[in-house]
Amino acid sequence: MGNEVSTFGDVYSYGILVLEMFTAKRPTDSMFVDGMTLCNFAKTALAKQVESIVDLKLLQQIEQEEASSSINNGQSQSFARSHKIQEILISILNVGIACSEELPRDRPAMNDVLTRLHACKKTLLREYVSDEV
Fold first, then answer.
1. Long-range contacts of 24-33 (CB under 8 A, 24+ apart)
2. I need a labelling partner for 1 at 20 to 30 A (CA). Which of 9, 10, 43, 85 fits?
């Protein structure tokens, strides 16, 4: 936007990349008109339901893994895992949203982003490792 190059621009780009990967939408998608952006789309949809914005291919893969898990571990454990995965998806999408805020001062520092993503990773690994033990 004509400003100096800064790490806040890198954080913004990272946020957009995260949103693109998890929503399978590009910031240049024809649906983004009249002030609607990928970030606004994610914010609005995330408030309603995470499944409404996450890439269908990703959800199908998760559902397939959950189906095989429920056969091996029982239905209630599968439901708990599915809920935990949904929470992790929400956390990751919130990272993407925070990074792609319009004003640079509203974006987190990259070390904060890393901390949040590592927390997601630990939660996810804990969920899968505990089932294997």
1. 24/55, 24/56, 24/57, 24/58
2. 43
Task: Residue 19: name the closest of 45, 35, 1, 30 by CA.
Answer: 45
**pTM, entire model:** 0.75
Cβ count near 120 (within 10 Å): 17
The CA distance from 90 to 117, in Å, is 11
Q: Are 122 and 68 contacting, i.e. CB atoms less than 8 angstroms apart?
A: no
**15 Cβ contact list (under 8 Å, min separation 6):** 39, 95, 96, 97, 98, 99, 100, 101, 107
pLDDT in tens, the chain (133 residues): 455 666 667 899 999 999 999 888 898 888 888 888 999 889 888 777 777 777 777 777 777 766 666 555 555 555 566 677 788 888 999 999 999 998 989 999 999 999 999 998 888 777 666 555 4
